[in-house]
Amino acid sequence: MPPVFPMLTVLSMFYYMCLRRRARTATRGEMNSRRAIESNTRALPINVEIVQYAKEVLDFSSHYGSENSMSYTMWNLAGIPNVYPSSGDFTQTAVFRTYGTWWDRCPSARLPFKRTPSTFCSQDYVELAFEEPVYPTAVHILETYHPGAVVRILACSANPYSQNPPAEVRWEILWSEAPTKVNGPQARQFTPCIKQINFPTNLIRLEVNSSLLDYYTELDAVVLHGVKERPVLSLKTSMIDMNDLDEDEDEEKFGCGMDTLNKQFSIVTLREWPTNGYFDKLPYELIQLILSHLTVPDLCRLAQTCKLLYQHCCDPLQYIHLSLQPYWARINDTSLEYLQSRCTLIQWLNLSWTGNRGAISVSGFSRFLKVCGSELVRLELSCGHFLNETCLEVITEMCPNLQELNLSSCDKIPPQAFNHIAKVGSLKRLILYRTKVEQTALLSILNFCSELQHLSLGSCVMIEDYDLIASMMGAKCKKLRSLDLWRCKNITESGIAELASGCQLLEELDLGWCPTLQSSTGCFTNLARKLPNLQKLFLTANRSVCDTDIEELAANCTHLRQLDILGTRMVSPASLRKLLESCKDLSLLDVSFCSQIDNRVVLELNANFPNVFIKKSFTQ
């Protein structure tokens, strides 16, 4: 009787090989031999250490503050500390836009991309320039409120002040760790143990993940310690296994990391294997399912094992959803070129954070979309500073099925370029946070994109008349479910009335820091009566919100889940109790700086409504 190989046995063998490979890597301290050598070295004291604060904030993904102010903006990270060692909520600090998991629990939340490496958890970033390039010996981060968001620190080989940009821009991770919960919101100096690098740097990048925080993290300053000359290393070679060096050389040869991604994509010569092992006996669909759990670098590695797996790893069905954001530092024109043949069926593409400092050219991006854009439904381009009018024109021409477009913080796109978006009538989600979109272009988009369900216009400072925009939304965007008008400076009760009358399917509305809205005009009571499906309402920093508004919400918006009334002086504990009793699904209530809601009231409400997170911020 011929031998029988049960399916579980074959799968077990496959996973055993993967686990064995991973275990061999882990025995080397989860790093390659070069990192292992560096982790067992010590610098000899031949240089005087230079200590410097950030000179300039070069780039960032989001901030809580306004584009025309310094309060709560990333620009506060430049220079000496403003607040530290004090703790509390201070306007002179740098604050990112979100915290916790609340933004993942609202109607505008986007589905995550599969295949995102578990080691990549960054949500936001900020890049800082320093005066002198140094070999870093320490990085101090002064956190003044709810610390613990920083998950990665990187250094760049490019000098932002040099007149001669390098041929190759390298990024090295100095330190990385999964998000951790820090007990207490008090200030601290965070000084992780960083890795030594082999080039001087004066460009440092912090990446953060605020998902475990109870409130916004606040950063005050960053201090870079370093020496001008490369430290002399004293190697403890006895701690290095020479077999590890051989294996790592093999990994470098066949591309174990994203730094050799282009080589992985381009390899066409495979090792000669006598057979494909037992994979010949598996159904094609089952192999595809197994491989769908691998990351992009893993697919590249596996493609070099045998011809059968090469065919599977290059199958366009493996690239229906592709996120290149975790590999932003390595993606360039060559990467996109090698990916073209694999992405002919791609529907979701995430290029957020990629392409900056010349890594992706307009022509390289255009060539890729001309080959791979026909089936695209979702395109994420957050912080893509290489984008210009030509890129938007190519998107609208090559992506006829596009439904979701994210241009968040693409602040280099010229205002006139946004007119092209109006050609994509199928759009259902459009994110224009911190862009230079102007009123004329936005009116055209709203007129022709009547299928819009989610629209973000937060911090779009070049729009002159938000009442006119709101009127157009009410007339044309009847399917709108979420709308972000964070920090729009000129919307009034007239625009709110038009919006509420025309967009009655709204479930999420952010009117935070909109100073021209006054409760005395009845705008908030009108919202509550016209929008019964509201689940999230942010009225942040509107000091006119009063008991009448809260009681109208309690009576009409019983599905409410998140409410932010930070800063109001007119809301009493009694109206909050009515709201909490009526809105059984309420999970977030921010009453920070509400003068009538003291800590005693918060403790009482927490005791009576334990399922609601009631936030009361403070300043010392």
UniProtKB/TrEMBL annotation:
Signal sequence bounds: none
Transmembrane segments: none
A matching Pfam family: F-box-like
Keyword check for Nucleotidyltransferase: no
Cross-referenced CDD domains: F-box_FBXL4
Keyword Zinc listed: no
One GO CC term on file: SCF ubiquitin ligase complex
Keywords: Leucine-rich repeat, Ubl conjugation pathway
PANTHER family: F-BOX_LRR-REPEAT PROTEIN 4, PARTNER OF PAIRED, ISOFORM B-RELATED
Name of the protein in its database record: FBXL4 protein
Annotated organism of origin: Chloropsis hardwickii
Gene behind the chain: Fbxl4
